Amino acid sequence: HGGQVLMIEHGGQVLLIEHGSQVMLIEHGGQVMLIEHGGQVMLIEHGGQVLLIEHGGRVMLIEHGSQVMLIEHGGQVLLIEHGGQVLLIEHGGHVRSC
């Protein structure tokens, strides 16, 4: 298929799916590890938890331990949450600690 690897399977598990010279899916142990589209990382998942969602070159969400860690939009950090507590809210270039 045009010299592009479409699927690598090992031990009954899909390890790599590549299309159009872009890595679309890396799966290991039944968990999706990486989804990339248009040269940008869209999703990184590990242990059933979403670790990274990136869109338009900006990090939109980082989640770890079922808690939202970072939400960024327009190059500005909007929210940082850890341990169920909001650590930082930024709006209009003004940082407000909580």
Structure report:
The chain has 98 residues and is an all-beta fold. The chain has one domain. The chain is 0% helix and 71% strand. It is built from no helices and 11 strands. It is flat, with a radius of gyration of 17 Å. The model has no long low-confidence stretch (mean pLDDT 57).
Q: Topology of this structure?
A:
Layout: E1 8-10, E2 13-19, E3 22-28, E4 31-37, E5 40-46, E6 49-55, E7 58-64, E8 67-73, E9 76-82, E10 85-91, E11 94-97
CA gyration radius, whole angstroms: 17 Å
For the termini, the CA-CA separation is: 54 Å
Number of helices: 0
- Summarize the amount of helix as a percent range: under 10%
Mean pLDDT: 57
Structural shape: flat
Largest sheet: 11 strands, antiparallel
Q: Determine the strand fraction and express it as a percent band.
A: over 45%
**Strand ordering within the main sheet:** 1-2-3-4-5-6-7-8-9-10-11
Uncertain segments are none
Structural class comes to: mainly beta
Oligomer status: single chain
Number of domains: 1
**Counted beta strands:** 11
Q: Give me the strand/helix succession.
A: EEEEEEEEEEE
What's the short version?
By secondary structure, the protein is an all-beta fold. It is built from no helices and eleven strands.
Question: How would you describe this structure in keywords?
Answer:
71% strand; 98 residues; mainly beta; flat; 11 strands
